[in-house]
From TrEMBL:
Domain Metallo-beta-lactamase: 20-207
Protein name: MBL fold metallo-hydrolase
Species assigned in the record: Candidatus Gemmiger excrementipullorum
UniProt-listed InterPro entries: DHPS-like_MBL-fold, Metallo-B-lactamas, Metallo-beta-lactamase_dom, RibonucZ/Hydroxyglut_hydro
Molecular function, one GO term: transferase activity
Alphabetical list of SMART domains matching this protein: Lactamase_B
Any Pfam family the entry gives: Lactamase_B
Top-level taxonomic group: Bacteria
CDD domains in UniProt: DHPS-like_MBL-fold
Gene3D superfamilies, sorted: Ribonuclease Z/Hydroxyacylglutathione hydrolase-like (3.60.15.10)
Length: 271
């Protein structure tokens, strides 16, 4: 199995753009798929620079309903009109960071390839999608700034019911992929364990720790506590980037060492 970070916040492969967004190109034994499409069509330019044919993609998964993960979906639908696009039904709501709209382009919902899901969905023996994460262990406090429009357009705290995770099974190995882990990486891991009875072999996910302003002492403590708690997953390899933020990622790296590796635009992971 191969995963190529088509776009992410940090530079990587020569000739590849980077932006605040995430898109992962995944080749399995039976599928060519994408998890998310970044904030723009830059993911497609990077794919061309890397010699990847996005016209071969058969499946697209949207991790949640934010622009920095869905910004290239309309372009992707042009490149691979045959691809099925899976998203939770709630991903089409109106989402805000303060007064700024951060939801998806509503034209995406009219694409013929869109499949709206209500919770978990097994696509086949390789691909499984799950939602329904309800725990609040180490829940990212930056979520408190994020709102969803409820009935009558009234804004409420986003509960991230629209977030879904992808599990890829290759033989006896299981790879868990999430976009931002808004529901909290430990709550996602708890739900995974409830579904599969064990921990994943590999996790690829943002941890939603990125901040524009300096971290407080309390926030640094949460980052360090997160790193120590992740050490307990002794047989799981973690890859992170995008919304984790470089300072938090570097602190986590000090704790986890080789158990945590960084994502960069255009860089491949051979698993």
């Amino acid at each position: 199995m191969r995963i190529i970070t088509l776009i992410e916040n940090t530079p990587g492969a020569p000739g590849c753009a980077h932006e605040h967004g995430l898109s992962l190109y995944i080749e399995t034994a039976r599928h060519t798929l994408l998890l998310d499409t970044g904030a723009s069509d830059a993911f497609a330019a990077n794919a061309a620079a890397l010699g990847l044919d996005l016209g071969r993609v058969d499946t697209v998964v949207l991790s949640h309903g934010h622009y920095d993960h869905a910004g290239g979906l309309l372009r992707m639908a042009q490149l691979a009109p045959q691809a099925a696009i899976y998203m939770q039904r709630g991903a089409g709501q109106d989402f805000y960071h303060g007064a700024r709209y951060i939801g998806i382009d509503k034209a995406i919902l009219q694409l013929p390839g869109v499949r709206l899901l209500d919770g978990d969905c097994r696509l086949d023996d390789e691909l499984f999608l799950f939602a329904g994460v309800t725990g609040r262990r180490f829940w990212p406090q930056s979520n408190l700034e994020l709102r969803a429009a409820g009935p009558g357009g009234v804004l409420r705290q986003d509960d991230f019911a629209h977030e879904q995770c992808l599990v890829v099974t290759q033989g006896v190995r299981h790879i868990l992929l999430s976009g931002c882990a808004h529901n909290g990486i430990f709550n996602i891991l708890d739900r995974y364990r409830a579904l599969f009875g064990a921990d994943p072999d590999v996790v690829v996910s943002g941890f939603h720790m990125k901040k524009a302003e300096p971290y407080t002492d309390a926030e640094w403590q949460v980052i360090e506590d997160t790193g120590r708690a992740l050490q307990a997953y002794r047989h799981t390899q973690f890859y992170t980037g995008h919304c984790t933020g470089r300072p938090a990622q570097e602190r986590l790296q000090q704790i986890l060492g080789a158990q945590l590796r960084a994502l960069h635009s255009g860089v491949a992971l051979d698993l």
